[in-house]
Amino acid sequence: MTNRVFPIILAVGLGIAVLIGVSFALNRSPEPQPTPGPSPSPVPDDWLTYRNEEFGFEVKYPSDLTLLQEGGVSAFVSFGKPEHSSIGESSLDIKILKGITEKEALGEAHIWTRDEIIQLQRNEPKQFPPDFNAEEFTKTQEYWLFDPVNSYPTPVQEILVNGKKALVGEFDVRLGDTEGGYVGLGASSMTLLFGDNNTYSLIYTGFNADSVVLRQILSTFRLIE
């Protein structure tokens, strides 16, 4: 009798364990996934290709831009119109970050979490416009693009670019504060692309916040070995 009961008890026990496991799996909250980026418009035929073996990337860029800067103390490349000597209305600036942590990459990109912005306002309220309320302003978004004093917090969108995670936002550059708010200079787009082996790519564009051009550029960007 005992020999028959034991297999039955064992089978019932295994069945209960399986049911518990299935129930746990079904009730787990799924991990948030990046939103697939919208399909970009085809890149114009006259765009040029830039490839840098030393920094390890390739990208296409508008043909009305020229290479303004390459190399220096970091893996930095800048394209722009000949009359511009720095980031301007039509510019493309790329920086490759290698061997750093995700937190360090977010810092390079000036990306803050909601809690970090709230804490900064509590500790240093003068970094923000007088009427700014960090808790109220940031309650809809976890990540924000923010350069204290020189910009206003703007939301960061998490998307997929060529199968890789990317954080995309726009700097709303602030010239100064007035009684009615702040005086804005304009927007400049920023993208932080996540690569492999602790490699990240920072891509800044200043095409009058033209998201079409930005998406076209991102669709051609490739890290190479």
Summarize the structure.
With 225 residues, the protein is an alpha+beta fold. The protein contains 5 helices and 15 strands.
Could you characterize the architecture of this molecule?
The protein has 225 residues and is an alpha+beta fold. The protein has one domain (35-223): Mog1/PsbP, alpha/beta/alpha sandwich (Protein Transport Mog1p, Chain A, 3-Layer(aba) Sandwich), CATH 3.40.1000. Helices cover 25% and strands 37% of the residues. Strands 1, 4, 5, 6, 9, 11, 12, 13 and 14 form a 9-stranded mixed β-sheet that branches. The protein has a 3-stranded antiparallel β-sheet with strand order 2-3-15. A hairpin with a 2-residue loop joins strand 11 (157-161) and strand 12. The protein is globular, with a radius of gyration of 24 Å. Mean pLDDT is 76; it is low at 6-14, 16-26 and 177-185.
Q: Give the H and E element order.
A: HEEEEEEHEHHEEEEEEEHE
Calculate the terminal CA-CA distance, rounded to whole Å: 68 Å
Query: Low-confidence stretches at least 5 residues in length (pLDDT < 50)?
Result: 6-14, 16-26, 177-185
Please identify which CATH superfamily we are dealing with. Mog1/PsbP, alpha/beta/alpha sandwich
Q: What percent of residues are in strands? A: 35-45%
What percent of residues adopt helix (DSSP H or I)? 25-40%
- What do the pLDDT scores average to? 76
Please identify the top-level CATH class: Alpha Beta
**What's the β-strand tally?**
15
Q: What does the radius of gyration come to? A: 24 Å
Give the tally of structural domains. Answer: 1
| Biggest sheet architecture | 9 strands, mixed
Q: What is the fold named in CATH at topology level?
A: Protein Transport Mog1p, Chain A
| Molecular shape | globular
Number of helical stretches of at least 4 residues: 5
| Structural category | alpha+beta
CATH architecture: 3-Layer(aba) Sandwich
